[in-house]
Automatic annotation (TrEMBL):
This is DUF177 domain-containing protein. It holds the Pfam family YceD. It comes from Brevibacillus fulvus.
Amino acid sequence: MNIKLTDLDHRKGEPLPLRFTLDPVELKKRHQEIRGLTPVEVKGEAVKLGDLYYVNGEMSADVDFVCARCLTPFTQHVVVPFQETFSPPDAAVELDEDSDIVPLEGDEIELVPLMQEDFLLEIPVFPLCKEDCLGLCPSCGTNRNEQMCGCKNERIDPRLAGLADFFKNSTE
């Protein structure tokens, strides 16, 4: 979706409502952890205040993942707020490399690439089915969220194994 700057200029500070969807196929291709995705609903508004253009709102979709710890498929409703500020080429605004203001080159604001980037940056690199997921047992493969196993997964640094024997003998 593109917004013509002249449309915002003529509104004289009154917000222009926005509503569109992002292509789920394109987003799924760009993030390896997304297994499935509903169309991403974008709702927001655009407004010109002073020399700057502001676009804000939120995106929402249901995203299918596989848990990074226990490999269980799950679906999560993701809501991503966004806020972007744009500066036209003739604006008297100083832009530096740390600025969050996006310089415009033409007479339109191209929203789709920015919205895709904002959405993808909110997707976790290691999705978890729940915050305290216990994962799989590295020895037997049991899902420790469903049942505990009797495996001893105590890792002892081989360089300190002799020290463990020393303390075992001193407690007897």
